[in-house]
Amino acid sequence: MFKRSLTPEREPTRGAGHESARGRALRAARQALHVLAVELGTPTDPGTPLFGTVQNRWLRRLPYLIAFAFTVTLLPTGISVLSHDYGMNDGLAGALATAQSVPLLLAVTRPLQAWWVIFAADVLGAIALTGADGAVGRPWPWPPTVIVGYLVLMLALALRERNRTLVAVWLATGAAGILFGPLAPERSISTWVLLFVLSGVMLTLGAALRERGRAQRKLREQETISEAERAHRTLLEERTRIARELHDVVAHHMSVITVQAASAPYRIEGMPEAAQEEFGAIAATARESLAEMRRLLGVLRSEETERYHDPEKAPQPGIEQLPKLVEGTVRAGVPVELTLPEEPVVPEPAVDLSAYRIVQEALANVVRHAPGARTRVSVTATADGSRLTVLVVNSAPPAPSAPLEPGGTGHGLIGMRERVRLVDGSLDTGPLPDGGFRVAARLPLTGAAVPATAGAPGSAPPDSASPDSGSADSASPGSPSVRPDPPLSPKDSDSA
After folding, report:
1. pLDDT confidence of 494, banded at 50, 70, 90?
2. How many whole angstroms separate alpha carbon 298 and alpha carbon 240?
3. Chain centroid to CA 233: how far?
4. Distance CA 303, CA 50 (A)
5. Cα-based angle 359, 422, 368 (whole degrees, multiple of 5)
């Protein structure tokens, strides 16, 4: 009784468990079919040609040429094979061959839609060949022309679609071959395994090529971003250096104001008390301004500069120091001819410093990148005394030789432009037909306007490039890769 009473209770439980497992299996199967249907019905970037983003015009046209070549080859061949070898009706053979080959042209822009048309045509062709007398002893269900066209389609599909879509296409191809297996005519040569394997190979190859192209595009994007960041960082470094140098120029004038204001009551007898208080306020304001400038300079100085270079305490150089600079360059092995104005020129401090640094940058790069080249340095003023022209021209090196330093710090052209922009001048740089290089700067002698951003943090000079120091590599005379005053770009800085 006890054993008999347990049996009816266990059987419903076991049966309910079996029904639940079957339900889960059916739900999983339905979900899998739904995923396959979604993947096969959702194309990626429809209408975008293969290789559409390639810059080379011939590579963009290559997919069209390949699709056209296979279409015009497979269409007549397919008609001939179906009608003559398999004994199919000419009209039906023409329709099937057209549906199996012409959609290859559509595969260039919409490969998934082309697969639907060709796959359906291949299935209909296999059904039509099932009862054909010519299928005996011949490849079935996929004739050779079908296999060739389908493999070309697989490659186009793999270059465009997602991996899940490719897996769905591959499984659909294998499923169609398996379903046709029991219907194979006598003594026919089964080709569904061959197509299944080769299509998998083509899909894998195309997917690998697609991922490789995607990785290369991302790498180019990262390189572009890195170059832009490098250019921006170099620009900020140059502006910071210029701001540090301008501190000396502005500090000199502020110191003069402070001394004059503080000493005015002692130099001028009988000064009213109100005027003395005014001069005292001026001196106090000037001292506060100097203190603020020193704090700003401390922010602009990097730890590396403070660690390896003592703060500059000597006066900033100018045009008067150019002969000494040229002498150092001549000792470095570069014949330099210097021409200075016949009459003394007294430019504003910022212009004087900019002219010296531009010549320094250019000569440093002659030493680095065009060793031994004859160089001419000319500093002239216009007849009306309004502008100063700084010209540095070097010829090609006397003998073909590699630059002493193939790389550059990336500060030359950028630093020159910033200095010229600081005083509202103009800069023209570029290669010469004989292999030399030219640097021409035009700076105002009077009324030089200093932009508001010139002294802001992040605004500064190029490397203090002496022929031995090696800053300003990018202004390298003798390098034909630098165009006349091109827009700022990372490549400008090292193009010399």
Report:
1. very low
2. 11
3. 16
4. 52
5. 25
| More confident call, 276 vs 199 | 199
Distance between CA atoms of residues 270 and 272, nearest Å: 6
State the DSSP H helix or E strand holding residue 369, giving kind and residue range, or none if neither: helix 349-369
Query: Which one is predicted more confidently, 443 or 317?
Result: 443
Q: 262 with 283: CB under 8 angstroms?
A: yes
Residues 50, 70: Cα–Cα separation, whole Å = 16
207-216 contact pairs (CB < 8 A, 24+): 207/158, 207/163, 207/166, 209/158, 209/159, 210/158, 210/159, 210/160
pLDDT above 60 for 472: no
Of residues 418 and 105, more confidence is placed in: 105
- Report the distance separating Cα 379 and Cα 339, nearest Å: 6
Q: If you search the block for the tokens 């432009």, which residue do you land on? A: 417
| Tokens describing residue 194 | 């061959």
- Between CA 496 and CA 366 the distance in angstroms is 10
Q: Which two tokens stand for residue 214?
A: 């995607």
Pull the structure tokens for residue 338. 């210097």
Q: Mean pLDDT, to the nearest integer, of 352-381?
A: 88
Three-state secondary structure call for residue 379 = strand
Q: Check residue 300 and give its pLDDT.
A: 61
**Which residue bears the tokens 């290369």?**
216
Q: Which two tokens stand for residue 94?
A: 């023409």
Q: 478, 373 in Cβ contact below 8 A?
A: yes
With residue 8 as reference, give the H or E element that holds it.
helix 2-41
**pLDDT per residue over 261-293, tens digit each?**
888 888 888 888 888 888 888 888 888 887 777
